[in-house]
């Protein structure tokens, strides 16, 4: 007989499972954490390499030389009178500049009313204009395009990038080897402008933005680069890869950037950190681990960390290049940056297909080393296995009392699905309330309390979150299976499987989010029973709940970027993170806030119900 | 040898003025050399340079079948359109004015290549796309691209295996489509492609052994791609010194690009070849060299050619008359009579449709109504 159909063997297996359950779970958890931390250890990582054959191993000779002209143009773009801050973007100046360089220029106006004012960027009713010029390929049909974008927003004019864009446009116009059209986009109000442009380009409307339709179009976009230069003098270039919902561009784009950095001798960083060569020392390892943790945290929060992030949703590989002035001795001039961009665009021009040869899911402990999905997924798998083992254990226990009930005890057999349904429904309704009410009730909150709209939204969210903690006491009366051992076991079984499915699906799409939630949720949910000391366990559960996970992540992030904050500042940051999360969801369709509010929080509430089962 | 003796030499036939020779050391040689090149998926294009050498040595374009999968000259990324250079100094435009590409782009497939070799082409295929060789032709085949152990890549989606190639050559041998065939391949692990040959009169050269990669020679920084493979580069350098009257033989060709220059070890195979490689001239394959001796004597062709002497006592053995395969059935193309259309029974779709109509008919009117009809 087979292993599982032979009753003797099955009993032996299940006996083994129930006896060794806790030790195995603890070992798996520790193994998962150790595996994750070990990912940054250099011998376990692979060196990055260019996978796409068409991008080749040889480099073109870049001939761009008008970097200084670009800088002087930048000063023209940014006089105090025509600055972005007062009159918005100097649209006419840009249109004229692009037209004089031989591009086909078009503008797009857009407007969006945010659900509540954004205190970080100080905007509520956003109205702006995108300006873009298309450089048509002289001989090619207009089927493919590349995009180079320089965001221009009121606080940060980014004029050097815009001027470099114009200088590049003039240089590119004189070449005949372009096989794709090149679109030079200057977007206003950074992400909102990019979203409006992309929606107009692809004829979609997923976020409720109002925009004028695009007059000119260039074919399907193969790749995009976003450039942000904050000053005339640049000492290093930072590469930003994390996009919306933790999506990453193809690793070949990062490899391309790194290859050109090496060729031109430009200092390149990722997560703002330089490369180190001493991987066998403790500092070297911590440096790599810190870089990787920063990437994990940035990916987990699901927002787009550069203008490129919104392109990824349309399967356009995009990356942001940020120029940083860190007052080093060795400076990079604008001509070199122009050459870097020229080289990258020429290599992208050589592509015959979209970038697809290299990895789409990876973690970068440094620019020259990467961890692919095959290596980091087992860390999450080990944590998910704990949930499944616990569920299996409960299943065995639930099946066993059927044998003990033959001695005439008139216990009702397993309570059935209905008793489980009540806590599930109530938890999910609370989750729906957490999702909908903060934004909808902000006017009422502002009337009754002396807070601004943003604070009202955030505080309402926290209030609903805390109110959910009181649910078990109030809903016990509605439960019919109260008091039974079976009741909470069935609920825990359902909740464990539900959590396993949730975390699994999340980890597939956004590994970092799934892993961070698993690290905090799995220990408490696997070990929770109503028979534990309630007060202690309640505190532990609250401290490991999703909201506190976000708080810890905020503190860890600030530590990692070497700007540690005090508790009160951390708290303010935490509130702003919540408001940004809600805004990201409303403006760009980020899924982190709905996931946490509608699924993770109700799941956690179900476990909270189990704790207070009586 | 006098011309009279020559004409009376047994075994000569004169149909259509093609001279069939049974002994190889007659001074009057008329070789039709065929040169078929396939350029699968490399961005380099050494074959145009080959084309120049082969052209120079006497093979006309009508005897060259050129298959190019990538259009480099007219690619949008070419900074100098309609030109292809073999060296980064850009001294020689190998694309020129007179390159005739017979199979281009997506027409370069394994099927088309094998059809060209075996001659199984549809009647409408033009002459320029056919290999119109016969059993006195020497054929040179040059392949380059990406390959591996036992295969050559076509177009990113197909491969031709060494077994397929060996079988194609055997078909060619059985259909008498070649006299001798020289096969040159410049890919990674190229030697694996000639391992399986089993037809006679085949000689093969490869740029690398099994397990080795063939490397590119030099990059062009203007475009960002490599121009040519090492083996081909040195092969072409060798061919520069070959002129129509040169006596260089195959042994010299085997010495081209030793490991010190090429990093990979070139290989060759001569066991199927019936002549000694040292006696085979390069121009036998790469050029169309005709040795002509001019004589001022006149010859009187008065007596008809005597029929071949019948062997005695074997009247029941039929000597079948040899005919050439009708490679270009012109009669079929030009004087096509309208074919009688045979009557076919209706196929599934029509049957199904009629069944449906009948079913609906009976459904509506019911079986019992039928008796009113009948």
From TrEMBL, chain A:
GO biological process: attachment of GPI anchor to protein; GPI anchor biosynthetic process
GO cellular component: GPI-anchor transamidase complex
Gene3D superfamilies: Zn peptidases
InterPro entries in alphabetical order: Gaa1
Keywords assigned: Disulfide bond, Endoplasmic reticulum, Glycoprotein, GPI-anchor biosynthesis, Membrane, Transmembrane, Transmembrane helix
Transmembrane regions: 20-41, 373-396, 416-437, 457-475, 495-524, 536-558, 595-613
Cross-referenced Pfam families: Gaa1
Topology with respect to the bilayer: Multi-pass membrane protein
Coiled coil: none
Pathway(s) this gene product operates in, as recorded in its UniProt entry: Glycolipid biosynthesis; glycosylphosphatidylinositol-anchor biosynthesis
Subcellular location: Endoplasmic reticulum membrane
Function: Component of the glycosylphosphatidylinositol-anchor (GPI-anchor) transamidase (GPI-T) complex that catalyzes the formation of the linkage between a proprotein and a GPI-anchor and participates in GPI anchored protein biosynthesis. Binds GPI-anchor.
Subunit text: Heteropentamer. Part of the GPI-anchor transamidase complex, consisting of PIGK, PIGT, PIGS, PIGU and GAA1. Interacts with PIGK.
Name of protein: GPI-anchor transamidase component GPAA1
Organism: Cyprinus carpio
UniProtKB/TrEMBL annotation, chain B:
GO BP of this protein: attachment of GPI anchor to protein; GPI anchor biosynthetic process; proteolysis
Positions annotated as active site in the UniProt record: 146, 188 (nucleophile)
Bilayer-spanning residue ranges: 348-367
GO MF assignments: GPI-anchor transamidase activity
Domain of life of the organism encoding this protein: Eukaryota
GO cellular component terms given for this protein: GPI-anchor transamidase complex
Functional pathway: Glycolipid biosynthesis; glycosylphosphatidylinositol-anchor biosynthesis
Gene3D superfamilies: 3.40.50.1460
Family: Belongs to the peptidase C13 family.
Stated name of the protein: GPI-anchor transamidase
């Amino acid at each position: 007989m087979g292993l599982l159909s032979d009753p003797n063997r099955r009993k032996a297996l299940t006996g083994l499972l129930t006896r060794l359950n806790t030790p195995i779970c603890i070992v798996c958890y520790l193994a998962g954490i150790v595996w994750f931390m070990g990912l940054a250890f250099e011998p376990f990582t692979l060196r990055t390499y260019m996978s796409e054959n068409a991008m080749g191993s040889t480099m073109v000779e870049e001939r761009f030389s008008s970097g200084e002209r670009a800088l002087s143009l930048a000063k023209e773009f940014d006089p105090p009178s025509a600055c972005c801050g007062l009159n918005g973007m100097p649209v006419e100046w840009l249109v004229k500049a692009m037209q004089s360089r031989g591009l086909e220029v078009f503008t797009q106006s857009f407007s969006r009313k945010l659900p509540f004012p954004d205190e970080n960027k100080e905007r509520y009713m956003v109205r702006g204009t995108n300006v873009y010029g298309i450089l048509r390929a002289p001989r090619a049909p207009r089927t493919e395009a590349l995009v180079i974008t320089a965001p221009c927003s009121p606080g940060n004019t980014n004029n050097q990038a815009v001027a470099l864009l114009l200088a590049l446009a003039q240089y590119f116009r004189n070449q005949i080897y372009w096989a794709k059209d090149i679109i030079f986009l200057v977007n206003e109000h950074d992400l909102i402008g990019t979203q409006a442009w992309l929606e107009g380009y692809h004829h979609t409307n997923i976020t409720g933005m109002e925009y004028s339709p695009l007059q000119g179009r260039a074919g399907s976009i193969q790749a995009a680069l976003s450039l942000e230069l904050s000053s005339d003098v640049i000492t290093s270039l930072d590469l930003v890869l994390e996009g919306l919902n933790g999506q990453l561009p193809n690793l070949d784009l990062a490899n391309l950037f790194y290859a050109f950095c090496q060729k031109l001798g430009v200092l390149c960083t990722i997560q703002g950190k330089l490369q180190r060569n001493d991987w066998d020392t403790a500092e070297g390892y911590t440096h790599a681990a810190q870089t990787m943790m920063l990437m994990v945290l940035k990916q987990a929060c699901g927002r787009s960390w550069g203008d490129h992030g919104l392109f990824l949703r349309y399967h356009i590989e995009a990356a942001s290049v940020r120029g940083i002035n860190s007052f080093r001795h060795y400076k990079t001039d604008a001509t070199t940056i122009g050459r870097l961009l020229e080289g990258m665009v020429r290599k992208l021009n050589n592509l015959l297909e979209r970038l697809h040869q290299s990895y789409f899911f990876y973690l970068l402990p440094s620019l020259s080393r990467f961890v692919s999905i095959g290596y980091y997924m087992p860390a999450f798998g080990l944590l998910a296995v704990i949930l499944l083992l616990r569920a299996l254990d409960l299943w065995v226990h639930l099946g066993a009392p059927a044998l003990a009930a033959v001695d005439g005890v008139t216990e009702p057999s397993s309570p059935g699905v209905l008793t489980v349904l009540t806590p599930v429904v109530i938890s999910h309704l609370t989750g729906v309330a957490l999702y909908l009410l903060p934004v909808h009730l902000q006017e009422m909150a502002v009337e009754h309390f002396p807070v601004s709209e943003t604070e009202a939204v955030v505080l309402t969210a926290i209030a609903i979150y805390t109110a959910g903690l009181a649910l078990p006491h109030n809903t016990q009366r509605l439960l019919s299976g109260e008091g039974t051992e079976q009741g909470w076991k069935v609920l825990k079984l359902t909740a464990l499987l539900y959590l396993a499915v949730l975390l699994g699906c999340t980890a597939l799409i956004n590994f970092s989010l799934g892993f961070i939630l698993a690290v905090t949720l799995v220990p408490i949910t696997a070990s929770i029973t109503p028979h534990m000391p309630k007060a202690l366990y309640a505190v532990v559960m609250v401290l490991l709940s999703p909201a506190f996970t976000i708080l810890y992540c905020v503190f860890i992030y600030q530590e990692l970027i070497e700007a540690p904050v005090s508790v009160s500042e951390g708290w303010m940051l935490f509130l702003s993170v919540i408001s940004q999360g809600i805004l990201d969801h409303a403006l760009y369709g980020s899924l982190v806030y709905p996931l946490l509010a509608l699924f993770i929080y109700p799941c956690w509430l179900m476990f909270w119900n189990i704790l207070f089962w009586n | 040898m006098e011309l009279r003796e020559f004409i009376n030499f047994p075994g000569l036939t004169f149909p259509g003025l093609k001279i069939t020779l049974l002994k190889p050391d007659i001074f009057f040689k008329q070789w039709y050399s065929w040169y078929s090149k396939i350029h699968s998926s490399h961005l380099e294009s050494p074959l145009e340079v080959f084309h120049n050498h082969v052209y120079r040595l006497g093979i006309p374009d009508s005897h060259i079948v050129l298959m190019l999968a990538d259009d480099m000259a007219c690619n949008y990324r070419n900074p100098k359109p309609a030109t292809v250079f073999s060296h980064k100094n850009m001294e020689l435009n190998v694309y020129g004015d007179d390159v005739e590409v017979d199979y281009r782009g997506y027409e370069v497939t394994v099927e088309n290549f094998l059809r060209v070799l075996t001659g199984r082409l549809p009647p409408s295929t033009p002459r320029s796309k056919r290999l119109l060789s016969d059993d006195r032709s020497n054929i040179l085949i040059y392949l380059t691209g990406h390959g591996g152990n036992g295969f050559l890549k076509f177009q990113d989606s197909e491969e031709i295996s060494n077994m397929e190639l060996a079988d194609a050559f055997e078909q060619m041998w059985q259909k008498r489509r070649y006299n001798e065939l020289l096969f040159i391949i410049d890919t990674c692990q190229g030697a694996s492609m000639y391992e399986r040959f089993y037809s006679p009169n085949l000689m093969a050269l490869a740029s690398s052994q099994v397990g080795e990669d063939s490397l590119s020679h030099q990059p062009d920084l203007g475009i960002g791609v490599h121009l040519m493979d090492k083996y081909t580069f040195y092969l072409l350098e060798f061919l520069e010194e070959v002129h129509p009257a040169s006596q260089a033989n195959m042994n010299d060709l085997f010495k081209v690009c030793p490991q010190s220059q090429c990093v990979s070890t070139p290989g060759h195979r001569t066991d199927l070849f019936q002549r000694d490689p040292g006696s085979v001239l390069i121009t036998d394959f790469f050029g169309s060299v005709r040795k002509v001796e001019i004589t001022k004597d006149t010859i009187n062709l008065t007596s008809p050619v005597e029929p071949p002497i019948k062997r005695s006592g074997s009247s029941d053995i039929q000597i079948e008359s040899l005919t050439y395969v009708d490679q270009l059935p012109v009669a079929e193309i030009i004087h096509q009579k309208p074919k009688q259309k045979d009557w076919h029974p209706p196929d599934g779709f029509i049957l199904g449709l009629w069944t449906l109509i009948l079913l609906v008919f009976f459904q509506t009117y019911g079986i019992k109504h039928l008796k009113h009809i009948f």
